[in-house]
Amino acid sequence: MSNRQNRAILHGDEDGHQAARHRRRITGSCGAMARPISVEQLAALVATRHGDGVHGPTIAGLTGSVAVGKSTLAASLAAALAPYWRVEVIQTDGFLFPNAELESRGLLMRKGFPESYDSARLAATLEAARNGPVEVPAYSHSLYDVDPALTRRIDRPDILLVEGLGFAPVSGDSRVIHALDSLLYLDATEEDLEHWFLDRFMSYWRAAETDPTSFYAQFRHLSEAEARGFGRTVVWRQINLPNLHEHISRARPLADILVAKARDHSLKLVRPELDWE
């Protein structure tokens, strides 16, 4: 996809033949207007960061709260980019320390917090991906652990989308975010985030009824109401929400692209500030 095509899609006209329209501004300030944006337009905005490929793939990060829909958006962006570029998607969850190691360090209840990630390995993998094939570990939400069987090999795609947590600098360590060419932050209200998280938690809980290997099988003795209450009070409010406040949200002001997601899953572009005719 050429930059001309990218601009055309951003303006809502893939052929580039635009009718006259009023000048509109999108800003990242608190009281700003934000413009609805489609996945295709957002993909075009991501693609404008793509260079000539001489220095390896363009690496774009995608982050935001637990349950905001990072994986779904990454897959949709990859599908929109695929007709024009070779695209790969990887998840930072694959770079979590295994449960056994987290438990030995007393960090199992801190999974998803910065200290639960092998940040050095993640940063090294992203840098190595610019120069040649790399092995990328993967995570199983059903097992609630890194699964070696899911490890895969990627080889210098045009665009590498990296979705997950662990991008915000911690204690001066900014190796991961410095390995990116751009960062997209997917934002939403805390009310919507809790709603989506509980929907996901309960879907895993229900699936565990017929899957004894699932991490969530240990909660099957709870009633549905009890399981939902546990997900809300223990997992969301004591783990995921503090992680959002203390760490994840620190990546928001660093993001090149800030997108707001509504309960109906519609998207609005908050940043960057764009002027278009």
From TrEMBL:
GO function term, MF aspect, one: pantothenate kinase activity
InterPro entries: P-loop_NTPase
Cited Gene3D superfamilies: P-loop containing nucleotide triphosphate hydrolases (3.40.50.300)
Class of enzymatic activity (EC top level): transferase
Keyword annotations from UniProtKB, A to Z: Kinase, Transferase
Region feature (Disordered): 1-24
Keyword Kinase: yes
Protein's UniProt keywords contain Cell membrane: no
Entry EC number(s): 2.7.1.33
Protein name, as recorded: Type I pantothenate kinase
Organism whose genome encodes this protein: Sandaracinobacter neustonicus
